[in-house]
Specification:
Layout lengths: L2 H23 L9 E2 L8 E9 L4 H11 L5 E4 L1 H6 L1 H9 L3 E4 L13 H18 L8 E2 L8 H10 L2 E3 L3 E2 L7 H11 L5 E5 L5 H14 L3 E2 L2 H4 L8
Parallel strand pairs: 1-6, 2-3, 2-8, 2-9, 3-4, 5-6, 7-8
Helix pairs in contact: 2-8, 5-6, 7-8
Length: 236
């Protein structure tokens, strides 16, 4: 085997590894799971989504702001959090927001679960959501922890009849202060955008209100995920 052949083999292996990383780590890749990340529209509409809900202190503050501005959003809840804070989860639903599935435990090794273990984890969270959600608000939405996808996640999503929701704007609000996160978001907003936020962060309500005001001033309208992607409730 000559040097050129070795270089070509190594290059091919590196390219394959890079593709596999992209396929799993980028939720918009669509390799393993068809994911809705941005609506195809020219209308100035966007959607707000929150991960890791509910939080005992911050989620009520977020809900207060959404109520003040008459805005609906989607909260991707962790099942164990729903069990800990059932009243807050119920408030999310009662105030007209959508509760989506973000797994039951949201553990770091979720992508490595066996199909059965992953299926049980996701189903456990979904059962909690269904218990407090009326049929007209059940959209059976799923957002994988960390935005990671793989063949197992793809299988579980397909078998469970879930619609997977991603994003095209990742705020990085878990690692950036509110002002920096806000600047990152507003630079990337386009018609049909889906914004990823976290209602568990200490200053999430500050970021939200600043963002809402900017969006309004720029002539955008905030709609919920079901309206943005024309989703229909799923009867369970």
């Amino acid at each position: 085997m000559n040097a050129i052949t070795v270089i070509l083999i190594v290059t091919a292996i590196v390219a394959l590894l890079a593709w596999l990383v992209y396929a799993s780590a980028s939720i918009s890749s669509g390799v393993y799971v068809h994911t809705l990340c941005r609506a195809k529209t020219d209308k100035p509409v966007i959607a707000l989504t929150f991960d890791d809900s509910p939080h005992p202190q911050q989620t009520p503050l977020i809900l207060d702001i959404l109520k003040e501005y008459n805005i609906k959003a989607t909260f991707f809840a962790i099942g164990s959090n729903i069990e800990q804070y059932p009243d807050i989860a119920a408030r999310i639903v009662n105030e007209g927001h959508i509760l989506g599935n973000h797994s039951y435990a949201h553990t770091s090794n979720f992508p490595l679960f066996s199909p059965n273990k992953m299926r049980d984890d996701v189903a456990r969270c979904e059962a909690l959501i269904e218990r407090i959600t009326p049929p007209e608000q059940r959209y059976r939405l799923f957002r994988p922890p960390f935005g990671v996808t793989n063949p197992t996640i793809g299988k579980v999503v397909k078998e469970g009849g879930y619609t997977t929701i991603g994003w095209n704007i990742r705020s990085l609000d878990t690692v950036r202060p509110p002002l920096v996160a806000w600047q990152r978001i507003v630079k990337r907003i386009r018609p049909g955008s889906v914004i990823l936020l976290h209602d568990r962060m200490p200053e999430s309500h500050i970021l939200l209100e600043k963002l809402i005001r900017w969006i309004d001033n720029e002539g955008y309208q905030i709609v919920n995920i079901n309206e943005l992607f024309d989703l229909k409730p799923q009867q369970v």
